[in-house]
Prior knowledge:
Layout: H1 3-12, E1 20-23, H2 43-46, H3 48-53, E2 65-68, E3 71-74, H4 87-99, E4 112-115, H5 123-133, H6 146-153, H7 159-169, H8 176-181, H9 203-209, H10 211-224, H11 235-248, H12 258-277, H13 286-297, H14 310-315, H15 317-321
Antiparallel strand pairs: 1-4, 2-3
Helix pairs in contact: 4-6, 10-13, 11-12, 12-13
The site of zinc ion has 7 residues, from α9.
Amino acid sequence: MGTLLWSRFVEVEDPLAFNCRFEIGNGFVTPFWEARWLGNLCLKEDFPNLYAESLLKRVAVASMGGWVNGEWKWGNFGVVLHDDSDLALVAEDALLRFLLIGRDPFLEGGDKVSWIGSAEGFFSVASCYEFLVVSRTPFGPLGRNDGALYLIWRIQVPFKIKAFGWRLFVNRLPTKDLLSFRGVPFSIENLKCVFCGIYPESCDHSFFKCELVNGVKRKITIWIGKPVGDLEEVCLQSFMDWYLFCKKKKVKEGKYGMIWLAILWIFWLTRNAFCFRNEGRVVDNTVWNIKSLLWKWSFIGEITHPIYSFYEFNKDPLFFLS
Ligand SMILES: [Zn+2]
């Protein structure tokens, strides 16, 4: 099938386009929004807000980005986002970027097409998609966490950390309680929280209620100079608590939720090290790890304090975050 036919698909929105699965080569002929090339998704349907706003409709996948020094970079999908852009639009943009990770076109080789049902699909993306957003964000009615999710997207941390924060909010981290619910077999012993080894692991327990985790949080709280309140918390309350504290302390806007994310990200890494690499149940290093991660992140987008040592940062973290 030649280019002419693909352009016809796009021109008249031929229903054939919806029944084919496209495999991206150089991306020159596959319609970005209309064709099913990213798992089972049809971006036009699954990202309705973004599509409605886009000035780049009816273009090929390769038109949505370009090669910079041998590296593929996705562009803005024809949508210019502003600080006051609609939340649904921002969330769709972020989610689409997440799903496009590892889906760059190739420098060479044409696109291929097959009938749905006859080809092995891209199910990892589809399941990832489902994993992240099946609950409500960003297509359903706004939930009570959505305002906070929006704030997470604005924190100056690497993208995967924002995605982690998002998954934490919508309870979509692969914690043992959820895996077990989906049929992954665990012994009773293995279901337990890796930190305390007493209660079953769940997002709620292992990040917000576990005594051991809260012991570390207490140390970080004191280090930052934040009043130590009741540490048995829930996700949203805990995030907003840190967020508002940082705002009050004149921390830079892109860094409001950074401390909160650093704490939870380090616990997630520690948990994974224990589960997958059998590293000890040790939380001793977590305080140090959180501090040094924050020091590293504190440089992102920084112009006021161009350089400072960890030693300086450790003495007065809020100064360098403000
Ligand atoms: Zn625990």
